Amino acid sequence: MERLELNGTRISPGVGVGSVFVALTHTKRRIPMRRIDAHDAEPSWKILTDARHAALKKLEGIQAATAKELGLQEAAIYGAQAAVLLDPEAAKDLRRWVMDELMAPESAIQALLDKFGKLFDSLEGGDMKSWAADLRDPWNSVLEELSEGDVEAARSGGPGSLVLVAEELTPTLVVSYPREKIAAIICSRGGRFSHGAVIARSYGIPTVTGLDAVDERARSGQACVVHGDSGVVVLNATAEEQESALTLSAERAHVRGVLASAAKEAGHTSDGTEVKIQVNIESPRDLDLFDPEIVNGVGLFRTEFAYMERPSFPSVDEQKEIYGAVLDRFPGKPVTFRTLDIGGDKSLRYFSTPEEANPALGWRGLRLSLKWQDLFLMQIQALRDCRAHGGVHIMLPMVTTVEEIRQAKDLLLTISGTEDLGVRFGVMIEVPAAAMALPDIVKEVDFVSVGTNDFTQYLFAVDRDNPWVADLYQPYHPANLRVLRYIARVCQKAGVPATVCGEMAGQRKGAFFLAGVGFQGLSMSPLFVPEIKALLRQVDIESLRETARQAARASTVKDALSILELSTAQAWQKVVESVGSHKT
Fold first, then answer.
1. What is the pLDDT of residues 362-389, one digit of tens each?
2. d(Cα 457, Cα 465) in Å, to the nearest integer?
3. Is 491 a catalytic residue?
4. 497-520 tens-digit pLDDT
5. Annotated catalytic residue, options 26, 187, 195, 224
6. How much is the pTM?
7. Which domains occur in the chain, in start order?
8. Residues 175, 151: contact at Cβ < 8 Å?
């Protein structure tokens, strides 16, 4: 195939070089048509056949277990579903679509589902429509098997060898594949401030979206170069382009290496004012990617990813094992566990939530936990049982009112059986109403952390996944900066520690502003810790305070950014000069 250069939306900076791996992301949306090369037809047919057999085996196991527990009559439905997968006409269609029309396995199944739709959806009567659903469901199981096989295939590649290609940038996509294998990610869709984008940046994965139908145009195995800074992606890149990109990547790695060598020094400004630097992590596996000695603890452990990686809800003992492993790596330091935060684009495949017109404003975070209290009680029981390991901090997400905090606190009291909770108890401020109620909230908690990603979204009434209004998502607009300054002041007055665990904390201009208005700690991806520490060492606290004052007093986002970027550019130049003296 010919070299193809594409221009997309910059999501995460950096340079990635690797082989294309088209990821099957099974969602409720239609699977796009993807073609395969003729020499891949036979292997693709085998992949589909193996997935069908795996789905059949699972159905047979479910049928046997159901028959034992409920009887043969109740189990008969699973026998009928198995018969659907054994239908010779369906197998004939699938083979023709893969072998003759060169459809990818998942696209062939979508074609089969479309065929069922045309056959039954026009028929009247609820029974006929239910029959159509019964025909589709077993094939959805095959799609799930294909997805699992997709992940296993990715594990066979070498470190940094894959450029993941998908229809949409989602959190599940980013965390489903071995991180050390991923050189870059490119997608057709995905906003710069979506959850998937935030995680990609946190992991330091060069990422570009807005590449029209790239999941259909790309072919697994193609050489690919991704320039996350400019949004340029080259498919079928030449050897010279790959070599040049690898050289640029190595130069950046040298800068990171020099800064990392000084990262164990405590976070502080040039005049010695302490700024606690913590990390955001998703899994105990993250702990192998950095030295825990470089930070003051964990400002955000996203517990939902421990749930997302499992086939069912983890038990109390399984959760204790996960949480204890993290605590053991940070002896004498706080670890802040955010309770289960699913909803919106973060879902569990084994737990269905209601369809909502606007999930971002719906049933998620603490709202879900207070409704499904058994899940919440299991989690806080596991967390409290881990207190012997070290500094357990429990943090509630998506808090709206002080009444919710009291209700959650009462549930924790039922676990503790005493007024002594045995853990530090705090909240994330993500909802403007909670910011306005902060004088009351600080009386109920031990600490506060601001999730700037969602807070900005809700302050500006902007869905950050919606490209039509993405320009209004402005973390550095003076309106947002003023509210953040207010939050810091309320917490200072109450003597309640306040940190920021949102994306602004790991950005140069964000770290300068937040430290300047008085936040005591910044929690970020481990990737950004050395850079932020190096920058803070270049300025004194009074300079940061003055910069923050000017930015908050600006009238437009352009003016505020100009003030913050000038300050950080001057500090970064000093860092670069320092790094230059370490060249070998």
1. 888 999 999 999 999 999 999 999 999 9
2. 10
3. no
4. 999 998 899 999 999 999 999 999
5. 195
6. 0.72
7. 255-580 (3.20.20.60)
8. no
